[in-house]
# Entry
Amino acid sequence: MLKNDPLEQWDRDHFLHPSTHLAEFARGNVAHRIVSGGEGSHIVDRNGTRLLDGFAGLYCVNVGYGRREIADAIAKQARELSYYHSYVGHGTEASVTLAHMILERAPANMSKVFFGLGGSDANETNIKLIWYMNNILGRPGKKKIISRWRGYHGSGLMSGSLTGLPLFHKAFDLPLAPILHTEAPYYYRRPNADMSEEAFSAWCASELEAMIQREGPDTIAAFWAEPVLGTGGIVPPPEGYWAAIQEVLDRHDILLVADEVITGFGRLGTMFGSDHYGMKPDVITIAKGLTSAYAPLSGSVLSEKVWKVLEQGTDEMGAIGHGWTYSAHPIGAAAGVANLKLIDELGLIDNAAEVGAHLRAGMRDALGEHPNVGDIRGEGMLCAVELVSDRESKEGFDPSRKVTVNAVAHLMENGVIGRAMPHSETIGFAPPFCLTRDEADEIVAKTAAAVKAVL
Ligand code: PLP
# Structure
């Protein structure tokens, strides 16, 4: 800590940090850090400590820190036109260009983009647009939404309800109805050890089918899911999962909303997770990787099928009653345009696929036989190491031991940021796409040392 640094005091006295144990923070028991710089895959704090950011902030600084091309585009936009709204048919050069670039990259049936600020508000928008759609189609009873336990879709009023993590519901009285949660496709934690991946996928689809039958197919508007579960533990779907789910949804005329806030724009080593798994979404939620977090921006990407009904709706009801002051903010849009160009120019998606696979292979070599490592999984530039007290029973640890938290603290002391995934004993990595093989090797070596230090 810098001597007599007023920021340290102001941080404690004035700043309410998200996702933080507030009382422990006030007592000085939460390791905190004021970050002042970043370059490539590293950040630097006010004390001059340099850390390899194995989580790209919050799975979002996909192109890495300190990209001059994006900083220059933001500065140029701020100089030329810092703001104009997008209401009543207005736009800016940056926002129109970005909408076009998103649709060039999105799955084939996508047609329009509504811009917001973050993943939570984009999911709120999507719920509203889907409800609006079913009102226009004359089926006002088709409004329930099914998401999954362990899914993360934000922490707004409805997006927090979509999130399938009880911590986000109970203490805030979030309305769970009309949201329902079905099984997570968490193969490692399957109900029966003898199930193949395909059999487990079929079981997940049958659980979904049973829920739909119980509630009545005419009451269910949409199924909401991340292509790979993120905050719920970095869990890729088992073989055959998306095909089995898609079949159920198609049969009951239920929309699929792919929440690609993490997976969109390359994290799985392909442009979109939907393409990666052959999903056929009707709506896609995007945020984080859209601008690599150089500015806040999110989007609701709508298929032609959904869009057509919205268009028809305004003929019946007048201008659509939805929008934010900062929808399509030109500075965010300029960051997005520069970011998507950079991803293409530097071939960063291929690098994410290649170095991500190297990272997981290294992790398996280093920790695959460790008696307390139950599962090593991931896809693209995502990697998770799940810790167990016993590989046979897959039992976790007494939470008071804080095994994962301590492992991640050890990792951090040695210069690498990983994430103690908050809802399982899992160390997560979601590095920037520009990660090098040497940096991946460093993450592996230091993770192995951290696990061995705490277990
Ligand atoms: N959806 C997913 C899949 C996410 O991972 C997140 C954030 O981590 C969100 C939505 C919410 O995004 P935001 O925090 O920008 O509101």
